[in-house]
Design a protein that fits this description.
Structural class: mainly alpha
Number of domains: 1
Mean pLDDT: 82
Number of strands: 0
């Protein structure tokens, strides 16, 4: 099997994990959100640590933690990803999974807008139109439903800011997310202790379930670690073997599955306003993807040209003298 084929299978599997994860967290609807989040952080750290230990990459972790700047950056990104995870869990528990799916559709366009604002990246006319369509979809949902899609915007913005911060960090995704979950684990342990021993209330004043009271629930909470880690490992594997534009396109499978699960499995109401906003978002993503693929083709063409064409007179002479003899 070719590396490219393996990469495509890996990114499809990762997007499928993410897209269907709502079903998993729906099975934990009886567990308060902060309790789920705490277990997700703890067991993710355990699972990532085991993977990195098996790969013999402890040295990378020690080197990363020796840099004070890493602590600052990953501490901030850990807070953002925790807020993103909590928003998703809350969306599932409050029957707003459809809105969560819309948020992950919005994320690529939010990322383009952040690139413009923070890195002075200039987007093309197609990208500007795509962002305009997304903004229009938000306006449609706000006017139609009587309130902005706050969960969707929260997920898109927190993930966009998360990516913005990680862009400044020269660490692989598995190592960086392990350190993030490692930073989240101590406050998670404190929260679980305080909620069970001191009666700290969860979101909405819900009482803690108590780990171990129900065997199936305990297994599901522990399983949230591998559920978080596995798609990221698959994503990392695919990103090394595929063009980034391909990775980006296949990832749209994630919100597509989320929306399908919300409508078909959870039975959430799809209003006429959703039916109007979704095509606007899809059209924006189509323009964005079309532009991304065109840019990828131009970069490849430019790279091939620069690699094959001599750029100076001396290089031209060297290339001419290096041509193989064709007398045989």
């Amino acid at each position: 099997m070719r590396n490219e084929t393996k990469g495509i299978l890996a990114i499809v599997a990762a997007a499928t994990f993410w897209g269907l994860s709502g079903i998993y967290f729906k099975a934990l609807v009886h567990v308060p959100p902060l309790e789920i989040l705490s277990h997700r952080a703890i067991w993710s750290a355990v699972f990532f640590g085991a993977v990195l230990a098996l790969q013999g990459r402890a040295g990378e972790i020690r080197a990363a933690l020796a840099q004070p700047r890493t602590w600052t950056i990953l501490g901030t990104s850990a807070g953002l990803i925790a807020l993103n995870w909590l928003g998703f869990i809350h969306a599932i528990q409050t029957n707003r999974a459809l809105e969560a799916g819309l948020g992950y559709y919005m994320f690529p366009l939010v990322a383009v807008a952040f690139g413009y604002l923070f890195f002075a990246e200039r987007f093309s006319r197609r990208q500007a139109t795509a962002i305009g369509l997304m903004a229009g979809a938000v306006v449609v949902l706000t006017l139609g439903l009587g309130q902005p899609p706050m969960i969707g915007l929260l997920l898109a913005v927190t993930f966009g800011l998360y990516g913005l911060i990680k862009k400044r960090l020269a660490l692989g995704p598995v190592v960086s997310v392990f350190i993030e979950t490692l930073l989240l684990a101590p406050p998670a342990v404190i929260w679980l202790w305080g909620s069970t021993s001191l009666g700290w209330p969860d979101i909405g004043g819900r009482a803690p379930l108590g780990f171990g009271e129900d065997a199936l629930t305990a297994v599901l909470l522990i399983g949230s670690g591998p559920l978080t880690a596995t798609p990221l490992v698959l994503f990392s594997y695919a990103a090394k073997r595929l063009a980034y534009a391909t990775v980006g396109l296949v990832q749209y499978l994630n919100p597509t599955l989320q929306v399908a699960v919300a409508a078909l499995v959870f039975g959430e109401s799809v209003t006429p306003w959703h039916l109007l906003a979704l095509p606007m978002i899809w059209a924006g993503l189509a323009l964005y993807s079309w532009d991304g693929l065109a840019q990828e083709r131009r970069r490849r063409s430019s790279a091939i040209s620069s690699a094959t064409l001599p750029t100076t007179e001396s290089e031209a002479r060297n290339a001419a003298s290096a041509k193989p003899c064709a007398t045989m």
